[in-house]
Amino acid sequence: MKRAEAPDLDQVDWTILAELQADGRMTNVELARRVGLSAPPCLRRVRRLEEQGVIRGYHADLDRHILGWQITFFALVGLETQKEAVLSAFERMVCGWPEVRECHMIRGGGDFLLRLVARDTQHENALTSRLTEAPHVLRVQTLQTIRTACDVTGVPVERELVEG
Fold this sequence. Notes:
Layout: H1 11-22, H2 28-35, H3 39-51, E1 71-79, H4 84-95, E2 100-105, E3 112-118, H5 121-132, E4 137-144, H6 159-163
Antiparallel strand pairs: 1-3, 1-4, 2-3
Helix pairs in contact: 1-2, 2-3
């Protein structure tokens, strides 16, 4: 996999990224205050970061339990073949399921690692059956979470960690 070219970011850019990752709803005026700029240059920097693809979007962090998604589980999926057409078809299929929240092609122990949510055990079992019956699927191992100690979105944006 080709690594994306990292844009040239200064300390103000890193601070903007840290602040927006922590609170994507703040106004540009508040963001500008926090990073020590006036509003227009701050907005120009944010737009540049968006155009460069560093900021990919903004979203709300929903509480899955309150909304009825009681189970999070992972599925380790092995396919019959690693032909690109089969891999791509599998990715398109599972990425079309609303319960699939992440899909990663992996090495060492399987072809894909999926993170899924389910409303209850019956729903989890139905999703597992749907996976095992999918074209070219050879094996599926599921792992249900008991407790989540850490669930952090994004990436570390402290400059020392990135350059270190």
